[in-house]
Specification:
Layout lengths: L4 E7 L12 E7 L7 E10 L3 H5 L15 E8 L9 E4 L6 E5 L3 E3 L17 H13 L7 E4 L5 H12 L4 E6 L2 H10 L4 E4 L5 H8 L4 E6 L3 H10 E9 L21 H4 L3 E4 L9 H14 L6 E5 L4 H10 L5 E5 L5
Parallel strand pairs: 8-9, 8-11, 9-10, 11-12, 12-13, 14-15
Antiparallel strand pairs: 1-2, 3-4, 3-6, 3-15, 4-5, 5-7
Length: 336
């Protein structure tokens, strides 16, 4: 019996500056026969995320080898009772149409009736979990406080805005890369103020949006955003540093530290970086808090879905350029 063919993507070159399509290659591979303990997953949705830009550098992804990433799929063949045929699972053997996984590498998805499957990559996935951990465990956002979220129209940013409102934030401010996205944040996602960071220095825009200062900054950008937020934060403000999308294309020549970094001392600020993989135990908290709002329709995940595995590289590059609003997801196959 012939084995199925998987379409896969490899990274074939290290980028110098912004990555391009030439840094990747599509290949066809025959899926090997399963051994005991393995299952074959037909992938349905894949996430493309900013952290992947860092993985493209030396010490990250290997060249000419399979890549990783957050993926949802359906078990279509199995030699393990832990992953029966038909089971919907999450795994990280991404950038391919079909993946061979073990039970240790794949997690069956909880059945949340009325919640879209893609939410397990966005609002309920690593994206939403990053926002939840940043707001509740690191920054410890309190009701009535003023929060600034950078890269606010991206996956983590939109999730953070939704969660901050549900957590009782008094004022939510976001930065993004265009006037249209800024309007989207205020008109559709509940932000009280939003601005295009190209228009003026970050500190000036924050002074306009939050004349009384900030209590919390969720940093997804780094660079001048961090410097501006330090200027705007009140004494004893908190910074939860999640990402640095503004400098991912300059990893070999990173920008100088914010010029006002010592104000962290002068204002008694707290700055803490975090990796969501160190807080996976927070996922049940996120489920308990957010699933009822998703089921009721009070929260609608903000997503940009690109259809077709052949467009996965384009989706990744587009995400890095800010072509998405909300979570960027690639639909590889039809969902059940």
């Amino acid at each position: 019996m012939s084995r199925p063919i998987a379409r896969v993507v490899h990274q074939v070159a290290r980028p110098s500056g912004p990555p391009t399509a030439d840094d990747f290659a599509f290949l066809d591979e025959t899926v090997p026969a399963l051994t005991a303990g393995e299952a074959l997953v037909e992938n349905i949705h894949q996430s493309v995320d900013p952290y992947m830009r860092e993985e493209m550098e030396e010490g990250g992804w290997e060249l000419n080898a399979p890549l990783e990433g957050r993926t949802l799929g359906r078990v279509v063949e199995s030699r393990t009772p832990a992953l029966p045929v038909g089971e919907l699972v999450f795994h990280r053997r991404a950038w391919r149409t079909h993946s061979v996984v073990t039970a240790a590498e794949a997690t069956p998805l909880p059945a949340f009736e009325g919640v879209p499957l893609t939410a397990h990559l966005g609002a309920l996935g690593g994206t939403g979990l990053s926002a939840w951990v940043g707001l509740t465990r690191v920054a410890r956002l309190q009701p009535g406080e003023t929060i600034f979220i950078s890269a606010a129209a991206g996956g983590v940013g939109t999730a953070a805005g939704r969660l901050a409102r549900l957590l009782g934030a008094g004022r939510i401010i976001g930065s993004t890369g265009s006037a249209a996205k800024a309007r989207h944040l205020t008109e559709h996602l509940g932000f009280d103020a939003a601005f295009d960071y190209h228009d003026a220095p970050i500190a000036d825009r924050l002074r306009e949006a939050a004349p009384d200062g900030l209590d919390v900054y969720l940093d997804n950008a780094g660079g001048d955003h961090l410097e501006g937020a330090i200027t705007a934060l009140r004494e004893h403000g908190r910074i939860a540093w999640c990402g640095a999308v503004a400098q991912y294309n300059h990893l070999r020549q990173p920008p100088a530290a914010p010029r006002n970094l010592f104000d962290v001392v002068g204002k008694s600020l707290r700055l803490e970086g975090f990796l969501v993989r160190n807080h996976l135990d927070a996922r049940p908290e996120l489920y308990d808090f957010l699933v009822p709002h998703l089921r009721s329709g009070a929260v609608v995940p903000d997503e940009t879905v690109v259809r077709g595995f052949e467009h996965v590289v384009d989706a990744f590059l587009g995400m890095l350029r800010g072509a998405n609003t909300g979570k960027m997801i690639v639909q590889i196959a039809e969902a059940p």
